[in-house]
Specification:
The chain contains ten helices and no strands. By secondary structure, the chain is mostly helical. The protein is globular, with a radius of gyration of 15 Å.
């Protein structure tokens, strides 16, 4: 998964990778791998960057061209993301098995995501977002005055 928008935002703000890494509390090499897409960028860290750049997670993941700022809670955790994912799955009247099958993983592995025992990889979250039209800004607890359109 490529994160070119994140690099573009960083460069638009005249920041070096080392500065963003320090801001996120990680090593520069870790951040560089995230930005290049070599390693999944944790959603919680994407939320922190979205807040820093006054934009939204869906824009940063290239799911929309709408850069408008979304307000996120301060304490995004993997448990929070799991609960939000479960809420939306239930709203869609889907089973854990259906989501697990779509991701080509075991149901028990998927249940760990919803229980907050394991971080859902960003690429899997993006896949679910596209397949089931799940707004990632919602999964991240985002609030917006205006609806953001997702490009599918």
């Amino acid at each position: 998964m490529q994160f070119g928008k994140i690099r573009d935002l960083r460069e638009d703000h005249d920041l070096r990778q080392s500065e963003i890494a320090e801001f996120l509390g990680v090593k520069r090499t870790t951040y560089a791998m995230w930005e290049l897409g070599d390693v999944n960028f944790p959603v919680e860290k994407l939320v922190i960057l979205a807040k820093r750049f006054h934009t939204n997670v869906e824009y940063m993941l290239d799911l929309t061209s709408d850069k408008r700022e979304v307000i996120y809670p301060d304490d995004i955790t993997i448990e929070f993301i799991g609960r939000q994912l479960k809420r939306y799955r239930l709203k869609l009247q889907k089973t854990q098995r259906e989501f697990a099958d779509a991701l080509k993983i075991r149901q028990s592995s998927y249940s760990y995501y919803e229980d907050g025992k394991t971080r859902i990889p960003t690429n899997k979250l993006v896949f679910l977002s596209k397949k089931y039209h799940i707004p990632l800004n919602y999964i991240c607890g985002g609030k917006s005055k205006e609806k953001i359109t997702i490009n599918l």
